[in-house]
Amino acid sequence: VNRTPRLHLRATALALVVAASPAAAKERSEVPDKYKWRLSDLYPSEAAWQKAREDITRRIPALAQHRGHLGDSAEALWRGLDAVFAIDASLQRLSVYASSLSDQDTRASAPRGMRQAAEQLAVDFNAASSFVRPEIIALDPSRVRAFVAQEKRLAPYRHFLDDALRWKPHTLGPSEERILAESDALAAAPRSAYGVLKDADLPWPTVKLSTGEEVRLDTAAYNLHRQSRVKEDRDLVFAKFFGALKQFEATMGSTLYAQVQTHVFTKKVRSFGSSLESALFRDNIPPKVYAQLLADVRRSLPTFHRYLALRKRMLGVEVLRYQDLYVPMVQKVDLSFSPEEARAITLEAVAPLGQEYIAELRRGFEGGWTDYLPTTGKRAGAYSTGVYGVHPYQLLNFNGKYDDLSTLAHESGHSMHTFLANAAQPYATADYPIFVAEVASTLNENLLVHHMLARAKDDATRLSLLGSYLDGLRQTLFRQSQFADFERGIHERVEKGETLTGEALTQLYLAQVREYYGHAKGACRVDDVIGIEWAFIPHFYRDFYVYQYATSLIASAAIAKGIREEAQTGGTKRRDAYLAMLRAGGSEYPMDLLKAAGVDMTTSGPFDAAMAEMSSTMDDIERILARTASATGR
Ligand SMILES: [Zn+2]
Fold first, then answer.
1. How far away, in angstroms, is 62 Cα from ligand 1 center?
2. What pTM did the predictor assign?
């Protein structure tokens, strides 16, 4: 068990939203109810929430009666699991209410107190239920299987039990496990030291932009100003920001080295073949998927270099440099939408998913799922979460731009996944794995882009849509894969007994970026200053996490392509397989879920479909450019 409610955050949009002007925000009291989510569906009042909290507080200690008895009989196993999962479900409801209330206005202290109380209960619950997995692992697997066969009420827990038993070969004796649990706190130190240095202690420089504006160049400001249309400003921003990181190259090198050592430690004590294998084992992903991704990406570098050449052409620069990768390729067309329009367009865009999907999403839009508007003190960004037996909740900061429409489509993908899985699954198998979560969201984004292109009335709009879609592919597919490649490389070095220093990391990183971006071939110039970029990426502290951004996008591009193509001839086979995957929630392992939806991530097929989509996007852009050039006589 050991779960806390998961938020599906939209990473790519966060930086932009944080930078948005808070001056535009309204007071929450000024916002009509139709733009707010409905938390009263969870509890009619705060008093009801308090009562639920007291109830959970009473139930947690009672779990102790099951300790040491899970293996007694099929009936005892069911009683124990049922008690644990029932509290987990109550706690989910309690936590989502408290955190949603607190996110509405992060300044308010009462909701913050409720959130902390819910977090404390989750800690108590995790401690009180920590015996469950070790006790199951200690049982003879054939005994557990016999229990499941003989006791019907254990059926919802079949997958949970199977998942727990997978760990048997990687589990030590009770006293060793106790020591390992104690060491968890130590393993958090490198990431925490890195975070403190980067977010608090590091003295970010102040720069003067060409407008005369003075800017303190922290992470958010760097993310914003690296997109500047003024070349001198971009160069200044890159040089100063990376220059600041470079001063701490040695320190950050030692924190990252220590982080990698914690992964290698786990690999050794739990007898895995590599740290990669150890990390992917958690979600039962074969390491082959990782190797396949990196091999596919390297094989497709010519497609990537074609993108770089197109960017160079559209920016009209003689030499494309790494500093030129974030300027929008096309002048953004100023599309704007009301929440109602964004809803209507999203519903039209997901039409290939069928009437039932559309009808449920429409009901959700009208049924208090979504908190649309930015208000004073509201949490930035966007996410989707949900409560079993109630409905999904999604937080937005909708400002009426195309990115906001796209975010609505994205979060609605998560929410519909939650809705369909919750409707079809018992609580124990409703929560879907992270590896498939971003498939449902990016698939809706994909459908949205194609819908918007179909209804676009002029080339400028088309170019803007295609350009931002293409930039998304670069950042999610190639950039994240290059990070994944770097991550694999540094782990392999430490596994061979090498020491990582900041200087060595910079050399390795620079060589790899140059290879990916075709530095030697003149595709993109990568200056020495770029080598320190590894120190900027917090995800390197998350143990082989980033590759999932790439695999999710690949899977969704492949599935969406199939669904769009069959929709033209009235077919529904692929769509139905995909919807069945959403309904399956967490009842199977991620690879099996995706395979049933028609994508086998251990093969190159899905990747090639994504590349075909990237190539055809570039074909479209080149056709429009040729048309515009001949029209203007250039
Ligand atoms: Zn997402």
1. 37
2. 0.91
